Amino acid sequence: MTLQTENKIKKSDITVGELIPYFREKCSVCGHHRIMHDEFGKCEGVMNKPCNSGCDNFTPE
Q1: Taking the CB of residue 24, how many other CB atoms lie within 10 A of it?
Q2: How far does the chain reach from its first CA to its final CA, in angstroms?
């Protein structure tokens, strides 16, 4: 994590403890965690394996 990103988190009302479950939430379309999706919602897959579901929008379970 960059110092700039860490400072943004510290200045916000969001704790790292709150961010972790947010990014661990799974997508109901492809089943991958939110952290595997890019800023536009498209799933980038897991551990260098692309997502084959065609998921282009994160939808929480």
Answers
A1: 10
A2: 27
Question: And the tokens for 51?
Answer: 């997502």
Quick: pLDDT tens for 40-57.
Answer: 999 999 988 999 998 999
Closest by CA to 32, choosing from 19, 41, 16, 40, is 41
Please state the pTM of the whole predicted model. 0.78
Q: Which two tokens stand for residue 53?
A: 């579901």
Distant-in-sequence, close-in-space partners of 58: CB < 8 Å, separation ≥ 6: 27, 29, 34, 37, 41, 43
Q: Look at residue 26 and give its three-state secondary structure.
A: strand
Quick one: DSSP state of residue 8? H
Query: How many residues are there in the chain?
Result: 61
Beta bridge pairs of residue 33: 26
